[in-house]
């Protein structure tokens, strides 16, 4: 299975592709606020995944030396999600709230899809 850094690199590539689609959707379709909300949520979701990657590295290093780790940054990631929702609520003429929340979950969907594809590739190579 891929390690967390490889998954994060794939996530960044997928985020750039998604942001390009959001810009196209914003410019071409009449649903600009929905596409901007998706982009905003995906951006903050990727930021949350980056925080998780950093904290997991720190957790692994501390575990190797026998040191305790306080947390995995749950409060910081929760605060980031609240910030994304606050931006969408503050500027509803630009950002759609529901699409912002959906956008926050996109990196985790990418994570599950990547894990599933990796599992399928691994099982097909074993046969």
From TrEMBL:
Highest taxon, organism lineage: Bacteria
Q: Pfam families, alphabetically? A: ATP-synt_I (PF03899)
User: Where, by residue number, does the polypeptide cross the bilayer?
Assistant: 35-53, 74-95, 101-120
Q: Does the keyword Protein biosynthesis apply?
A: no
Keywords, A to Z?
Cell membrane, Membrane, Transmembrane, Transmembrane helix
Q: Where in the cell is it found?
A: Cell membrane
Membrane-protein topology? Multi-pass membrane protein
Chief place where the protein resides:
membrane
Q: Does the keyword Membrane apply?
A: yes
Gene Ontology cellular-component terms for this entry are: plasma membrane
Name-wise, this protein is ATP synthase I
